[in-house]
Amino acid sequence: MIRILPAALAATLLVFPLAARAADTPQREPYGIALEGFAYPYPVHLLPVVNDGEQLSMAYMDVAPAQPNGRTVVLLHGRNFPSSYWAPVIKMLNEAGYRVVVPDQIGFGKSSKPVGELHFDTLARNTIALLDHLEINKADIIAHSLGGMLGVRIARAYPDRVAHLVLTAPIGLEDYRLYVPPTPTEKMIETEDKLTADGYRKQLQTNYAIKLPGDAITPFIDARFNIKGSPDYPRWLRAFVSSGQMIYREPVAHEIPLITEPTLFIMGADDHNAPGRPNAPEALRPKMGQNAELAKAFAAKMPNARAEVIPDTGHLVFLEAPEKYRELVLGFLGR
Predict the structure, then answer these.
(1) Which of 22, 45, 176, 281 is the most buried (most CB within 10 A)?
(2) CB-CB contact of 179 with 284 (8 Å)
(3) Do residues 59 and 44 make contact, with C-beta atoms less than 8 angstroms apart?
């Protein structure tokens, strides 16, 4: 016993510091469903809005240039991305003299997650309410992905408020109802809830053909999966699924040819993103997501539009081909 006790004591002393260090290691706190804990590149402000009788807050960044040119650009984010991903574009536009307003739409990012359903008309009204609040009569709009669908709706509903429209890898260039049968909301919630972080990474890389290193995608995964620890996660999940139903139920493809404002499509040649494709009949799936060709066809029908396709580029065009994107956007806005 006399020989065993020192050995046991030594083992305990060896293990205890490890346990103490483990206890001292701070656990990463989950984000709130308004992305509390997730940093944005510029100060975030909140605008009170009322949607369907519900009191909500719309988050936005308002970034002033050092040498203003008197013009404002509004950036509209995609479904799977917090508006913080616009940081390089904000910097690019600021350097060219533009004031840049970057909202998180209701249901996304640091904005409120409503109990009610999302609708493009409501998001468009919220965006115009933000411009009114900031006393901006007319702005250029640069939109990405789902934001492209919203940009189309804003241009159609409020044409006098839009100077130029840049549709960056927009979705909604086809009516997905023609390919995909309706999916019940509860089924979508179940599917999204089962998705893992690794599965989501693979989904982004596959569906969006992203040409970025893995660590550049990690913030998008964190922004989505670190909120699972929030007690309000079910409300976030329902709002996220509502945005998917909005894409499906409220197509804008039929309105795109009616846009009269100067419009530029900037497409990644490898971007074949088509929401809902896995639920389409197998024979129809290859017909979906021909986005570059669809953009060129739309531009040909519109009175004041053109389409540019960037080779070897996926869905995140402005991050994958920043120099070409800068050239195209600044050249177009300068017309």
Answers:
(1) 176
(2) yes
(3) yes
